Amino acid sequence: AQSVTQLDSHVSVSEGTPVLLRCNYSSSYSPSLFWYVQHPNKGLQLLLKYTSAATLVKGINGFEAEFKKSETSFHLTKPSAHMSDAAEYFCVVSEAGGYSTLTFGKGTMLLVSP
Amino acid sequence: DVKVTQSSRYLVKRTGEKVFLECVQDMDHENMFWYRQDPGLGLRLIYFSYDVKMKEKGDIPEGYSVSREKKERFSLILESASTNQTSMYLCASGWGGTDTQYFGPGTRLTVL
């Protein structure tokens, strides 16, 4: 069975400093991994997706994530936080491709201060 | 752009009422999903569908049913609403054979 653990429920950074949101996963197969972002009172938006083509995945808005199989991790990073990055971020795992359902982490709230 | 719309952003209903939440997508997606989102619990899958008139139970189907009569529309039904069904409900869709999902804006349902 697949599962995902987001290691921090809240992360606070200052504008212009790096962002690190941590995610560990468990999967019996070669997983697909995603990061989604949810701004207040909005639906979820896909940030990036890993599908085994490359271990470093670049997403929208300057975010990227690195797949590390030995550590079963898929941490999300951004070199310099912007105020508009303040949102909730979800790490998501999917097994077995197209006919698998998604399993969501409980979310990490990113707070950005001026 | 993929567009997934949900019929209401906010909804207030009374205990025991029958509630319909509608979701429509305009990308000819085969797959459609209903989730509920609660603080500290993330998203939990209620029901999903890979084709018209087809449905599968997710992780928390109790108290809910679904209908998919047309490819673009997926309805979530609360047969008799209860206060513990107060939540944010999110619909998503995606192409068949892929696992990427696109989400609607959500419906915040309050059951009094």
Give a quick rundown of the structure.
The complex is a heterodimer of chains A (114) and B (112). Chain A has strands spanning 3-6, 10-14, 19-21, 23-26, 32-38, 44-50, 56-58, 64-68, 73-78, 87-94, 102-104, 108-113.
Provide key terms for this protein.
heterodimer; A: 114 residues; mainly beta; 4-stranded antiparallel sheet; 12 strands; 54% strand; globular; B: 112 residues
Overall average residue pLDDT of chain B = 93
Q: Evaluate the radius of gyration of chain B.
A: 13 Å
- The helix count of chain B comes to 0
Q: What general outline of chain A do the C-alpha atoms trace? A: globular
Classification by helices and strands of chain B = mainly beta
Task: Break the fold down into its secondary structure elements and pairings.
The complex is a heterodimer of chains A (114) and B (112).
Chain A: E1 3-6, E2 10-14, E3 19-21, E4 23-26, E5 32-38, E6 44-50, E7 56-58, E8 64-68, E9 73-78, E10 87-94, E11 102-104, E12 108-113
Parallel strand pairs in A: 2-12
Antiparallel strand pairs in A: 1-4, 3-9, 5-6, 5-10, 7-8, 8-9, 10-11, 10-12
Chain B: E1 4-6, E2 10-13, E3 19-25, E4 31-38, E5 42-49, E6 56-57, E7 64-70, E8 73-78, E9 87-94, E10 102-103, E11 107-111
Parallel strand pairs in B: 2-11
Antiparallel strand pairs in B: 1-3, 3-8, 4-5, 4-9, 5-6, 7-8, 9-10, 9-11
Plain-language structure description:
With 114 residues, chain A is mainly β. Chain A contains no helices and 12 strands. In chain A, the strands form 3 sheets. In chain A, strands 2, 5, 6, 10, 11 and 12 form a 6-stranded mixed β-sheet that branches. In chain A, strands 3-9-8-7 form a 4-stranded antiparallel β-sheet, with no helix packed on it. In chain A, strands 1-4 form a two-stranded antiparallel sheet. The relative contact order of chain A is 0.33. The model of chain A has no long low-confidence stretch (mean pLDDT 91). Chain B has 112 residues and is mainly β. Chain B contains no helices and 11 strands. In chain B, the strands form 2 sheets. In chain B, strands 2, 4, 5, 6, 9, 10 and 11 form a 7-stranded mixed β-sheet that branches. In chain B, strands 1-3-8-7 form a 4-stranded antiparallel β-sheet, with no helix packed on it. In chain B, β9 and β10 form a beta hairpin. Chain B is globular and about 40 Å long. The N and C termini of chain B lie far apart (37 Å). The interface between A and B is medium-sized, with 23 and 24 residues.
